[in-house]
């Protein structure tokens, strides 16, 4: 079974701060998915990565397959970034989900 | 937008009654999944399908059954609902073109069993 741990569980930041969310997992994977869940409940795909780094706007995701670790960074955070961020390591066609990091960005 | 809809979006039902949730996709994806989401837990897999009439159990399949008679529809049935099945249910599809697969979610169904 793939154990997935995210840290921190909860995070409060001031607008403009640089934010890092971490994800560690226990088994070998083919890729890792980062997802965002808004307060209304919808789940949106942010990144799928299998190596290195990906950037989309103010969001950056990195992964180190050998160390079984991934990070999601948000630069210049904004209140609209307030959401739950979920990492999901992928093994074949199976996705394993962390419990999420709840981010609140205060104006 | 992967064209995934779920119905109903909200349902309140009584213990012991059967309930069927529907997931519909418009883009002919092979893999479909049913998850439940509860406080303190990550999304947990109930069942998944890898084609018409091809399904398999996930980690929390007890009390649930599924059917997939058409590519576009994946049904989740609670044969006799219990209060422990009160949850938010998400359907998802994963793309199979290219590697790695990416997963897209429906809007969710909030089920309350009283």
Structural account:
The complex is a heterodimer of chains A (107) and B (114). Chain A is mostly beta strands and 107 residues long. Helix content of chain A is 0%, strand content 60%. In chain A, strands 2, 4, 5, 9, 10 and 11 form a 6-stranded mixed beta sheet that branches. Helices cover 0% and strands 55% of the residues of chain B. Chain B has no helices and 11 strands. In chain B, strands 2, 4, 5, 6, 9, 10 and 11 form a 7-stranded mixed beta sheet that branches. In chain B, strands 1-3-8-7 form a 4-stranded antiparallel beta sheet, with no helix packed on it. The termini of chain B are far apart. Classes of the chains: A mainly beta (107), B mainly beta (114). Chain A binds chain B through residues 4, 30-31, 33, 35, 41-45, 48, 50, 86, 88, 90, 93-100, and chain B through 31, 33, 35, 40-45, 48, 50, 88, 90, 94, 96, 99-105, 107-108, 110.
What descriptive keywords fit this protein?
heterodimer, A: 107 residues, mainly beta, six-stranded mixed β-sheet, five-stranded antiparallel β-sheet, 11 strands, B: 114 residues, seven-stranded mixed β-sheet, four-stranded antiparallel β-sheet
How are the secondary structure elements laid out?
The complex is a heterodimer of chains A (about 110) and B (about 110).
Chain A: E1 4-7, E2 10-14, E3 19-25, E4 31-37, E5 43-49, E6 52-56, E7 59-64, E8 69-74, E9 83-91, E10 94-95, E11 101-106
Parallel strand pairs in A: 2-11
Antiparallel strand pairs in A: 1-3, 3-8, 4-5, 4-9, 6-7, 7-8, 9-10, 9-11
Chain B: E1 4-7, E2 10-13, E3 19-25, E4 31-37, E5 44-51, E6 54-57, E7 64-70, E8 73-78, E9 87-94, E10 103-105, E11 109-113
State the gist of this model.
Chain A is built from no helices and eleven strands. With 107 residues, chain A is mainly beta.
